[in-house]
């Protein structure tokens, strides 16, 4: 208990005890508010000045109420990087002034899944900007455990570091997909997750990577990142296109990165018999699927969620050494002051691939 008393004497907040934060106050309503600044309360707490935070598609789905995974009032935002301002007495891995990327999932380390090395399934996980009690990064400041902070590699920008979380999500999904060197892969959806997955796949040297999306602008980016074949399902038959390039078989692995019923079914349709379908998209809670197609064709459908610390560290390494270039994906920057209208604007701007807020 001495540690708890020690941290109380070192309680730290931002100057004046308040901060500016973008608060999700109701479905389709965001407000810029002056809120109490977070304070160090646990021995391993760290106060971080947020410097960059990405707008995730899951936040947009939460904003519209579509996914049901965000409950107002709360501060969202989990793809973040910033500068360490103050630390609790038990913190040894970072110090004030350090630049850090924030791993937004706090694992308990004690449940059966954590003990089995499956931290992404932690029964007691808390996610920054998802669980209201955890706080969020659409703000000037946040407090998060030291064990979830990764020092940024030398030369990395805050904007690059904010891509650590979505890239780690993609790496985690690809590990579960178990892709072989000569597999053909179909990506359904060319938003940030789909395009980051494509960027990783190209580092593996795969010869056939199909990308499907209804946006021609995003498909153009996919081609620039190395997609073998792009498909617009409003004009093309995805299954016919994929079969035409795979001797009539279909893709060995398909990856769904949208989270809608129509795209989940498309991923099933373009996969060969006995193939693997990986669902990253987490949008609609319930969808309608042709179950007989899965059963009679012996498809393996694999869900994937979040990441672990190993994935996050590897993602930062790929960003730092240039294996993944965020340049083609970072298409808009915004401030907290623009937040009240930003989300509504993004819903009507399919040409924007990734927007990063700079508090």
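Sequence proposed for the structure above (359 residues):
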């Amino acid at each position: 208990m001495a540690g708890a008393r020690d941290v109380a004497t070192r309680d730290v907040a931002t100057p004046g005890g308040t901060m500016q934060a973008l608060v999700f106050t109701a479905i389709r309503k965001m407000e810029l508010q002056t809120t109490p600044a977070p304070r160090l309360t646990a021995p391993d707490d760290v106060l971080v000045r947020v410097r960059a935070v990405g707008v995730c598609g899951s936040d947009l789905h939460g904003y519209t109420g579509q996914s049901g995974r965000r409950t107002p009032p709360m501060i969202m935002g989990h793809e973040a990087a910033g500068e360490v301002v103050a630390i609790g007495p038990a913190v040894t891995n970072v110090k004030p002034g350090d630049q850090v990327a924030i791993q937004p999932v706090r694992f308990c380390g004690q449940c059966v899944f954590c003990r089995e090395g499956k931290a992404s399934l932690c029964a007691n996980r808390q996610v920054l900007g998802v669980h209201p009690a955890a706080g969020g990064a659409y703000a000037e400041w946040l407090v998060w455990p030291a064990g979830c902070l990764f020092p940024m590699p030398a030369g990395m920008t805050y904007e690059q570091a904010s891509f650590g979380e979505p890239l780690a999500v993609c790496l985690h999904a690809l590990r579960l997909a178990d892709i072989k060197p000569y597999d053909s892969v179909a990506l359904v959806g060319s938003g940030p997750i789909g395009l980051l997955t494509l960027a990783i796949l190209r580092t593996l040297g795969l010869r056939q990577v199909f990308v499907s999306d209804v946006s021609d602008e995003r498909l153009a980016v996919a081609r620039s990142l190395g997609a073998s074949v792009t498909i617009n399902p409003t004009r093309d038959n995805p299954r016919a296109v994929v079969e035409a390039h795979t001797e009539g078989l279909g893709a060995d692995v398909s990856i769904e990165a949208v989270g809608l019923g129509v795209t989940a079914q498309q991923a099933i349709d373009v996969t060969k018999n006995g193939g693997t379908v990986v669902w990253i998209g987490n949008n609609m809670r319930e969808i309608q699927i042709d179950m007989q197609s899965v059963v009679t064709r012996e498809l393996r459908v694999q869900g994937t969620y979040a990441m672990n610390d190993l994935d996050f560290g590897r993602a930062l390494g790929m960003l730092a050494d240039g294996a993944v270039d965020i340049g083609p994906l970072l298409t808009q920057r915004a401030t907290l002051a623009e937040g009240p209208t930003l989300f509504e604007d993004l819903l009507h701007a399919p040409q924007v691939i990734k927007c990063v807020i700079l508090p």
